[in-house]
Structures are given as C-alpha cells and as structure tokens.
Amino acid sequence: MKVSNLSTVISPFSKTPRRRWRWRVHDIYTLILLGIYSSFAIALYPWVEKASMWLLLNVLIAMLIALLAWSDTSTAPRWVRLLHWLYLAPVIYLMYQQVHAYVPVVNPHLYDDLLISWDLALFGTHPTHWIARFAHPALTEYLQTAYMFFYFLPLLHGAELLSNRRLQQVAQLARLVSFGFYISYLCYFALPAIGPRFTLHDFHTLENELPGLWLTSVWRSYVNAGGGIPNGVLNSQDHVHRDCMPSGHTMMTLVNLILAFRFRSRSRWFIAVVGLSLIVATVYLRYHYAVDVLAGALCALLVLWLEPRVHRLLVQRGWVR
User: Fold this and answer.
1) Taking a C-beta distance cutoff of 8 angstroms, is the pair 85, 158 a contact?
2) How many DSSP H helices and E strands does the chain contain?
3) Which partner for 192 in 69, 86, 242, 291 could form a disulfide, CB atoms 3.0-4.6 Å apart?
4) Domain residues of the chain, as ranges?
5) How far apart are CA 224 and CA 246, in angstroms?
6) What is the signed CA dihedral for 308, 311, 316, 321, rounded to 10 degrees?
7) DSSP 203-223
C-alpha cells in the first residue's frame, strides 16, 4: 500500500459517506402538524386541557418518525420499512383527537346557525328532515355500518397496494391521505359546529327516531365515544367535538375513492359502494348538514390539486427524495 493511501485511511479527518435520512413526504406533513399543535399548546397552555400530555405525545411521535427515517434503509428489516407506512394509521387518529383540545380555545363560537341558514338557502328545507321520509331500520343499519368504514377504507386500499408491491402508489396514497386529513383538522378552526343531531333534532331520542336492527346502537356508541361524548351524560352537546365543517368523512372518502379508480385498484368498486353510502349516511344519520358535505367534496378536489404541487416543492427543496 502506498504511503499516500495509508495516510488517507488512518487520518481521523478522512471523509466517509454520510448516512442519509429517508424522510417520506407523509413524515414532513405529520411533523408540520405536530409543530402547529405544539405551538398552540405552548401559547395557550393555561387554557388547553391536558396541554402537558399533548406536548409529551407530540415529542414522542416526532421521535418515532425521526427514528423510522433514520432506520429505513435498503438493508433495514422488512418490519421497519412497513412500520414507516403503518404508523400513519394511529397517528392520524391521535391528531384528530388532539385538535379538539385547541378548537374551543382558539374559536369558541359555534356556527351551526350559519350552516343551517346556508342549507335553507340552497335546498329550501332542512336536508336531515327531508331525508327522514326514507328512514327504515334496515336502511339505518346499513348506513350506520357503512359509516363505520370511514377509517378502514384507506387502510384496505393501502393493504391491497402493499400486498401487490405497488410502492409508488402506496406513497401517493399516504401523501394525499395524510395531507387531506391534516387539512380537514385545520379547517375545523374556521367554522366550529356540532351538527344537526343536536341543533335540529333531539340527540337523546335518536334511537327511537332512527332505530336500526342489531348493530346500529353499538356502532353509534363507538361514534359517540370517538366524538368526545361520555356515556350517559345529559349535556352531550357540551362534550361533542366541533368537527362538522367541512365533512371529513366526505372529503377523505372521495380522495381515497378517486385514487382507487386512478390506480385501477381491485377494491375500487367496493370502496365506491361503501364510500358513497357513507357520504349519504353523514346526512341521513344527522351527523352533518348538507353544506358540510358540499364543502367536503370541494376540499377533496382542492387536496387532489394542491398536494402534488406541495410535494413537488418539497422535492425541489431537497427535503424529500
């Protein structure tokens, strides 16, 4: 070995290839939302319920994302690379739960009266009253069950794409779904509302007015719990999340549905039937005003147009590959 080569080898200042962090686009979107949430928690600390818990949770999630970005190499175990996709499922739900700690503090006003007036101006009636003429226990059972598929439809679609190793399309789905969910959460700050089951109807008579068959009551209890309503409370409207406008169920179902047909996924017709039923269910089951659904559809189109441009900007800046 030549001396010059030897000195290069033993020199402590010799350059070695740096390990590259494998940031995925949905990592960046999640970290940005974590930063927004954490800023709210710090700035509004005395008024935000469980602010310390949310801050700690955000730090842990950010550390998990950083660890996955560091560990996800071409030689990493398969479960590490898989987890870099799958962590999104629980984190998206945690981000949904967390936003409701800030919405009542940042914008304590309810805009249900405004949304009701928009419905009347557009349709000349209350859509939840009009659609009640079609109520039937079997229809209620079906639509309540379809409504429960909201979080599972993107997971089903992603599982199909992963099983077929269509990783480029998995990446697109993860990008657009995370971006869309996070945009919908931020929109809740603009027009907080609790929905027609509290304003135009009596929440506590819903079981009698819209009975199902076997599972409707069970599914409703899960929806109520996920929406912040403790079991058995009388003042449910004081606890429920203020997340009607826009309809995230409509927005994200349409994003997933459009991508399923764009990708020609095998599950696209199942997603279409269940997804469109789910959208009808948002009004039939009195969770949303019709204008919420229209706003959700417009937001879905906005996400499909805007996110690819944001993604292109991130690539150009070198934040992601």
Assistant:
1) yes
2) 17, 0
3) 242
4) 20-106, 108-321
5) 19
6) -120
7) GGGHHHHS--SSSHHHHHHHH
**Tokens describing residue 30:** 């999640």
Dihedral of the alpha carbons of 136, 142, 144, 148, in degrees to the nearest 10: 180
Distances, alpha carbon 263 to alpha carbons 150, 174, 272, in Å: 20, 14, 13
CB 30 within 8 A of CB 175: no
Please write the tens of the pLDDT for every residue from 213-252: 999 999 999 999 999 998 878 899 999 999 999 999 999 9
Cβ neighbours, 10 Å, residue 177: 25
Q: Which residues contact 237 (CB under 8 A, 6 or more apart)?
A: 194, 198, 203
Q: Which pair of structure tokens corresponds to residue 251?
A: 């927005």
Beta strands in 151-229, from DSSP E residues, in sequence order: none
- Cis bond before residue 77 (omega within 30° of 0): no
For residue 100, give both structure tokens. Answer: 């409701």
